[in-house]
Amino acid sequence: MSAPRLRPGTPERAGLDPDELDCLVRELRELTGGDRPWAAGAVLVAGRGPVIAVEEAVGWAVRYSAYDQTADAGVELPREARTPMTLCTPFDLASLTKLFTSVAAVQQLERGTLGIDARVGAYLPDFTAAAEYGITVRHLLTHTSGLRPELPLYDCPGDTARLALLRAEEPVTAPGRAYGYSDLNLLLLQHVLERITRRPLDVLIRDGITRPLGMTATAFGPCPGAAATEDQRRPWAKADRGMLRGEVHDENAWALGGVAGHAGLFSTAHDLAVFCRTLLAGGSYGTARILGPDYVELLFTPPGLGFALDQPWFMGDLAGRGAAGHTGFTGTSLVLDPATDTFLVLLANTVHPRRRPPDNGPRAAAGTRLARAVRGPDGRQRSLPAP
Fold first, then answer.
1. Residue 83 forms beta bridges with which residues?
2. How many CB atoms lie within 10 A of CB 81?
3. In angstroms, how far apart are the furthest CA atoms of the chain?
4. Residues 163-193: tens digit of each pLDDT
5. Whole-number Cα distances in Å, 318 to 42, 280, 336, 337, 364
């Protein structure tokens, strides 16, 4: 039996309040205007069930040619030389890549080729530190391995040195003891998946997720035409690469050739809406099925496998009832709420022309707008329960 595919519609058809969605769009436009905007540009897609209730592109995919360190400001291109943001603009997803790696891992759980509580050392005996400390697949998926957030792989002289560094990395706290978000978890998971399947991660994600779902705009880079990210230079960055567009922003993913378990994917807001819809529908979209319902539920069972659950700092009032999602350093985010069958994809190039301390307020405000837009069966705006 096929699952409904996404289709455009009105907020009313989706059971969402049009006034709240109008406010959501207006606030997004305000965030991309002025001399020092929250983001140079952004794309928003939100809906409920199979209905896309709002799609909006605002601002610029490319606004600056460089960052002027002396003036602490971007060097603006003439308007005729800028690239407008469109609904079809691809973005560097940054850490949203982790969600696809996590789904690829859960697919192997479903097939019985991977054990959730199996030790990483059983699959990667040459990763001596992970083997010695008993790090498990569950630890990697729940960020409880004890590994530090990242390693300076970008400073290693070659692939052999990078791999040796990763193999020898010991946890800083005992595995299973505490949550500690780490890119290394997904890098280790990538190696596990590639070892057990004998296929590279980009092929696993393409053949197991994006191709079946028709997500033709989603792939590892390079990605010509993507929204620009950063004028990447030291000392604020970890490498000197200049203004980036279509090349992965994350320095470690770049050093690893652009395909990494924690970063490297490019995609559009519509493709990510398909991804959200698939998971909300229990793993199916149209005639394709990438996971069974029980395994989708496993992804969203606290503390969540790959997905962050009920985080008000970027979900706003969507948090507190089992909403799941993730953010990416470049300005990307998605949230899906099984309780109300709603989803919100907000992609922005907040690091263009250079990275700043993250401001997640706009993401949380967008989540709150969508939560308040949900109407009940009688057509009235649904009152929000206390978290």
1. 62
2. 10
3. 63
4. 999 999 999 999 999 999 999 999 999 999 9
5. 20, 15, 8, 7, 9
**Are 141 and 78 members of one domain?**
no
Half-sphere exposure of 103 (CA within 13 A, CB side): 24
CATH of the domain at 285: 3.40.710.10
- With residue 254 as reference, give the H or E element that holds it: helix 251-255
pLDDT for res 164: 97
Report if pTM > 0.90: yes
User: CA of 155: how far to CAs of 61, 125, 151, 387, in Å?
Assistant: 30, 25, 9, 44
User: What distance in Å separates the CA atoms of residue 161 and residue 148, rounded to the nearest whole number?
Assistant: 18
The residue from 168, 199, 230 where one domain ends is: 199
Geometric angle at alpha carbon 257, from 254 and 260, rounded to 5°: 80
Count CB-CB contacts under 10 A for residue 365.
17
Domain containing 272: what range?
7-94+202-373
Structure tokens at 300: 């969203």
Task: Enumerate residue ranges in the chain where pLDDT < 70.
Answer: 1, 376-387
The DSSP code sequence of 85-112 is: --TT--EE-GGGHHHHHHHHHHHHHHHT
Number of domains present in the structure of the chain: 2
Give 126-148 pLDDT, tens digit per residue. Answer: 999 999 999 999 999 999 999 99
